[in-house]
Amino acid sequence: MISPEEVQTMIQERLNNAEVKVVGDGQHFEAIIISPDFAGKTKVKQHQIVYGALQSELASETIHALSLKTYTPEAWQANN
Q1: Mean pLDDT of the chain
Q2: Strand partners, 23
Q3: Residues in contact with 66: Cβ distance below 8 Å, sequence separation at least 6, in sequence order
Q4: Which three-class secondary structure string do you get for 4-60?
Q5: Domain with 30 in it: what CATH number?
Q6: Structure pTM?
């Protein structure tokens, strides 16, 4: 099993300047990711970036399910 903190650290290490919050039960996770790298990209592309960062963990089913909410810093400020 993998902890939410481990998933959070992996995302932060693999995406530059990302703010990440992950909750989960060891297989199913929900993540909020705020990154300037998402600027100008569709939600689909933003999610593909995150899935790419966790490709081996998803392929091996270490992470069984991952729900994402992705934001640019500007979008995060506007929504919160």
Answers
A1: 94
A2: 30
A3: 7, 28, 29, 30, 31, 50, 51, 54, 58
A4: HHHHHHHHHHHCCCCEEEEEECCCEEEEEEECHHHCCCCHHHHHHHHHHHCHHHHHC
A5: 3.30.300.90
A6: 0.90
> Total structural domains in the chain?
1
Question: With contact defined as beta carbons under 8 Å apart, do 30 and 6 qualify?
Answer: no
The pLDDT tens digits of the residues spanning 16-47 come to 899 999 999 988 999 999 999 999 999 999 99
Torsional class of 61: left (φ above 0), alpha (ψ -120 to 50), beta (otherwise): left
**Residue 29 in contact with residue 66, Cβ under 8 Å?**
yes
Is the distance from CB of 8 to CB of 20 less than 8 angstroms? yes
Domain range holding 62?
4-79
